[in-house]
């Protein structure tokens, strides 16, 4: 992978960045994504934010190699501290982290999201955390995508500011309101895997002391299994 040829996962993230957006890529690593966006004429200006010195220096080197220093600024900062109102950021991308960490970045930098029109988020795990955050903070999920790369399944969530209060069912929060509309083969594979794993955990819990915590966790997993199997059975009937 490089700035000219992204991975399948990051290529799909790039597809959701609006034309002529001013984009901030948070946790940019080598800055491949912002470089790709500028090189392909999607955006004119971008910021690459990185909190770790090594990846920050790699991003700087990449931007210099691509001769994009006038269009991409690499900043060493934690999360959304990499941006300021003067930047005029309209789109934020955060890819390759766990859902809860992405939520933490968004929550700690909420004041920095004023003026941002679109969030393109690619959690490696626990996408539900982002959906919960979206509801609490009045962001709507306008697009979702599920894909497979190197035997791992990833989700992409595209959020825009909601025009009215957002409300989703427990099933939609868990599995994705947009993904539930299509139920692709990869979607079904993911949830068959998840359900099987949860069943193993529940079975192992049966053999342990039934503390309040164990009982509550078991009830939570059983509910999730029911929600998932309801969808899968309906799809395969």
Tell me about this structure:
- The chain is α/β, with parallel strands linked by helices and 237 residues long.
- It folds into two domains: 8-167, Rossmann fold, CATH 3.40.50; 185-236.
- It is 43% helix and 21% strand.
- The protein is built from eight helices and seven strands.
- It has helices at residues 8-15, 32-39, 53-65, 99-108, 127-136, 170-175, 185-206, 212-236, and strands at 22-26, 45-50, 72-76, 91-97, 118-123, 139-149, 152-161.
- It has a seven-stranded mixed sheet with strand order 3-2-1-4-5-7-6, sandwiched between helices.
- α4 packs parallel to α5 (127-136) and α7 runs antiparallel to α8.
- The protein starts with 7 loop residues before the first helix and ends with a helix.
- The model has no long low-confidence stretch (mean pLDDT 94).
The CATH superfamily of the largest domain is known as Vaccinia Virus protein VP39
Total domains, how many? 2
Distance between the terminal alpha carbons, to the nearest Å? 41 Å
On the 0-100 scale, what is the average pLDDT?
94
Q: Give the second-level CATH assignment, the architecture of the largest domain.
A: 3-Layer(aba) Sandwich
H/E series: HEHEHEEHEHEEHHH
User: Helical proportion?
Assistant: 40-55%
CATH class of the largest domain: Alpha Beta
The shape is: elongated
CATH overall fold name of the largest domain: Rossmann fold
